[in-house]
Design a protein that fits this description.
Layout lengths: L2 H21 L9 H27 L7 H26 L6 H24 L4 H38 L4 H27 L3 H28 L1 H7 L18 H16 L10 H7 L4 H10 L5 H20 L6 H4 L5 H12 L3 H10 L1
Helix pairs in contact: 1-2, 1-7, 2-3, 3-4, 3-5, 3-6, 4-5, 5-6, 6-7, 12-14, 12-15
């Protein structure tokens, strides 16, 4: 099989995706600034990969055992790993990816590249040691980026769950999958170099990361539509924490009635199916504060806001299945739960059967 044709195909896809990302209108506003940075990083990443594939197509792929070809693949992969990691992290922790971070990482990779190319140009006995040194640096780079993403992802998830008072893993799943896909591509490049795999494996590798490029753009476009509620929280990650919401607050009878009436109106308007409002925003809509709302549910209703809202959402799902005969496929979205598997677990825990089983039971009556 002619690997140059696959490189031409990969380069064409990369440049096409650069054009798509450049032409797609990104949301305006300060909240969406990290998202626009993510888009620019991906444009740079895809442009670099397109150039790399084009050069490989023109020059041809050398023998898999050729250390120079392996070194070139590793050096390109180092830049790719940096840009893909920055693209994923900037969405969940924009404060971590500064111009200084990008500059320092770029300088470090460039210095490694210069040293590696210098050793290859010198030739002789320096070539193999230089390649293995490059491999060691690349492994260290991947380990560092995995650590960085894990720390940022965990912190962002806790921050979101604290602000929205619900399970947010489904909302961040696309970002996690994007990073895991980038890591898989990076590890594949490493295995290709270490094991000195042949041309067939190079073609498979080229096809896989080309598909990954397309997947990343799809994820980005999906987040362009629905992720504003995530960004408005992660953008404020380094701001001072709000007042302690665990402090018990004493309510007089009139305050309890006022909050209860506000909650009744909120439920009647079915505001509990919205999943884009933080606890602070919900409290403001109810004419109270986050601390007061949390204390009210804990001390007056003897439950938590999350548990109470989950029960409302399950009850609404049951009503939709019973009265409106809606399809179960999009039911979780209708009741304000973004992750379908989480919704099914929640529904089963409260009802004792899946939404499909519940709907079939209704029809059999």
């Amino acid at each position: 099989m002619d690997s140059e044709l696959y490189d031409i195909f990969a380069a064409s896809v990369a440049f096409t995706l650069v054009l798509v990302l450049a032409l797609v209108k990104m949301p305006d506003g300060e909240v969406w600034k990290p998202f626009r940075r993510m888009n620019k990083l991906l444009i740079a990443c895809y442009a670099a990969m397109g150039v790399s594939n084009a050069v490989t197509a023109i020059c041809g792929v050398g023998d898999s055992s050729d250390p120079i070809m392996c070194g070139a693949m590793l050096l390109v992969s180092m830049y790719q790993a940096m840009l893909f990691t920055a693209s994923c992290v900037v969405f969940i922790a924009p404060q971590k990816i500064s111009v200084a971070w990008l500059t320092n990482n770029s300088i470090a990779i460039t210095l490694v590249s210069i040293a590696t190319v210098g050793a290859f140009c010198y030739g002789g006995m320096l070539v193999e040691p230089a390649l293995w040194a490059c491999i060691a640096v690349y492994i260290a780079e991947l380990a560092y980026y995995c650590y960085l993403f894990k720390i940022c992802y965990t912190k962002s998830l806790l921050l979101l769950e604290e602000n929205f008072d619900e399970d947010m893993r489904g909302s961040l799943r696309l970002v996690r999958n994007c990073f895991m896909g980038a890591l898989a591509v990076g590890v594949s490049a490493l295995l290709f170099v270490v094991l000195r795999l042949g041309g067939v494996w190079y073609i498979i590798f080229t096809c896989l990361y080309t598909l990954y490029y397309i997947y990343i753009v799809i994820c980005l476009l999906n987040y362009r539509i629905e992720a504003g509620y995530i960004l408005k929280v992660v953008n404020t990650a380094d701001e001072p924490a709000p007042a302690d919401t665990d402090v018990a607050i004493a309510f007089d009878a009139e305050t309890q009635r006022r909050i209860a009436r506000a909650i009744d109106r909120w439920v009647e308007a079915k505001q509990f199916v919205r999943n884009d409002r933080t606890m602070a925003e919900i409290a403001q809509e109810l004419g109270t504060t986050h601390a007061e709302l949390k204390s009210y549910f804990t001390n007056c209703l003897h439950t938590t806001f999350r548990t109470w809202r989950q029960e409302l959402r399950v009850a609404e799902a049951m009503r939709l299945l019973r009265d409106d005969d809606v399809a179960t496929s999009g039911l979780h979205i209708r009741v304000g739960i973004s992750d379908k598997s989480n919704f099914h677990k929640l529904f089963y825990r409260h009802v004792g059967m899946t939404p499909t089983e519940y709907k079939e039971k209704l029809r059999s009556k």
